[in-house]
Specification:
This protein is mainly β. It contains no helices and 15 strands. The strands form 3 sheets. Strands 4, 5, 8, 12, 14 and 15 form a 6-stranded antiparallel β-sheet that branches. Strands 6, 7, 9, 10, 11 and 13 form a 6-stranded antiparallel β-sheet that branches. A 3-stranded antiparallel β-sheet has the order 1-2-3, with no helix packed on it. β9 and β10 form a beta hairpin. The radius of gyration is 21 Å and the shape is elongated.
Length: 184
Amino acid sequence: MTSRLVVNSVRHTGASSDALTLSSDGKVAFPNNTGNILQVKQTFKQDTQSITSGSSDYVLINGLGTTMTLSSASNKILINLSISFAQSANNYAAFRLYDGSSAITAAQSTGAGVYDTSIIRYVDTEMANSYLGCSFSYLYAPGDTNAHTINLYGNPFNTTLYINRSNNTNYYNTSSMTLMEVAA
């Protein structure tokens, strides 16, 4: 035997506003929940990748992209990123956040050059044989309820960028991207 209660909203008898509302598609909305985390998505990258590019080429880091669809266009996506990498020689390693294949320019520096990045790290000769880690957080407001795949692109600036491994292949690590929907 199945019971069902059909309502549009729920309110305590002593409250002046609804505690929750139900949309026509069955999703629950909690009024006055600004700042609450509504959903969490994570991608955990365990494999390795080598990226060789020209001085201004940014290349997709495979298997790290994470997709989220916001429940409200006014909500935001909190992007938390942890990336492990090394390079074949001393130079800069740079990373940019993308929504699909479009750079999230608001998450980059504003120097108007190829080094406008979300994250940049100089790798010197001593560090080239080990691996480095970087963390980055950004609160992104896409302004709609479409599916957004957040990607990370890397640029080794005329060297080779190794994701999740050291230059000498003796040491391996992992990277992750976590997206959280934050209520407006």
